[in-house]
């Protein structure tokens, strides 16, 4: 019974607007954390592309890779943001009842050890007080506030451990696993003309190479025909 009253008081205390402010502050903090990780990953990609000497010969390819990588990082960031905000929403929507059971277990033990004389004296005093006045007493309200603050601290500790894990899983891990997977798939579906354009080749040089490839194929075909006749 006492536990249910305390749980109800937590909702009353939260309804005054303090919980909404706390939740909003936490949501803003986790959004900021996600953005910071996103910025670090973007910088790593930018530096890696800039420092790769082989890519400097192909500016168009370099741009394509940078664009694809940033698009992938944005997708990972959006998924990470959704995940961490769900964690915050989950913690703000459902109370952990066991926390309040443990929190109030010790005071109940101390109360049970009081002498019967003191209990009788308190009973006479309590008889003259209405339940409403007791609930509104300063000490009782202070206890409610203390319980709520302790619960908020516990939730913050939980989020402090789970949020970084979620961000690493959704952003860092995915960046290591599949940063350019979509880019590779797109490249595989492109036509020769678009692939050649990505390499920034001179059109005349490209045409010359194609002619040489065709001539080489003719030479190989002629050689095979000569070998076939020679062995007969």
Distance between the termini: 105 Å
- Which sheet architecture does the biggest sheet show? none
On the 0 to 100 scale, the average pLDDT is: 76
- Could you say which structural class the secondary elements and strand pairing correspond to? mainly alpha
Assess the beta-strand content as a share of residues. under 5%
Number of helices: 10
- The arrangement of helices and strands along the chain is HHHHHHHHHH
The unreliable regions are: 1-17
Overall shape: it is rod-shaped
Report the helical percentage.
Answer: over 70%
Provide the gyration radius in Å: 35 Å
Total count of strands: 0
Keywords: Motor protein
InterPro entries: Dynamin, Dynamin_stalk, GED, GED_dom
Protein name: GED domain-containing protein
Region (Disordered): 110-136
